[in-house]
Write a structure and sequence with these properties.
Number of domains: 1
Order of helices and strands: HHHHHHH
Strand content: under 5%
Largest sheet: none
Oligomer: single chain
Structural class: mainly alpha
Helix content: over 70%
Shape: globular
């Protein structure tokens, strides 16, 4: 029972706020019309991965919570903004860099990692996410899904 209680409190105190923050940011961009601007701005960069510019919303929300990124991708798929193959590409950064803000604060800062290594530890998940999206695009292209 102690483990279940601990898990519940982790979900309520840590995971849920990050998911809400990611959702609020994406909704704010949608409501204000900034999502169109962000989509146009990031269109060329996201195009490298075979994604529309609006897919950057998944990366933004995943940065705060893995589940928020995955939910944003699922919502974009349901709305017809992205295809199933594009959603598959977007799951990679959700898993590899998802919840980066929370993990960075809870692990890197709390464990008092040497400050000269903190930037590298922040950059590694971002870099692996970019590589994974490129690899997934290649795999899906070779499989004929794109």
């Amino acid at each position: 029972m102690g483990g279940a209680k601990g898990g519940f409190y982790i979900a309520v105190e840590q995971i849920l706020p990050a998911m809400i923050l990611g959702y609020v940011i994406v909704e704010f961009l949608e409501i204000t019309g900034l999502m169109d601007l962000v989509g146009k701005l990031f269109g060329p960069v996201m195009g490298i991965f075979g994604l529309p510019g609006a897919a950057v919303a998944v990366l933004i929300s995943a940065f705060f919570a893995k589940a928020a990124g995955a939910a944003t991708a699922a919502n974009m798929f349901a709305q017809g903004i992205i295809t199933a193959a594009q959603a598959t590409i977007l799951i990679m950064p959700c898993m590899l860099m998802g919840t980066l803000v929370g993990h960075y604060a809870r692990i890197i800062l709390v464990s008092d990692v040497n400050p000269k290594y903190r930037k590298v530890m922040l950059a590694v998940p971002l870099f692996t996410s970019l590589v994974a999206m490129l690899v997934m695009r290649l795999v899906l292209t070779l499989a004929g899904a794109m």
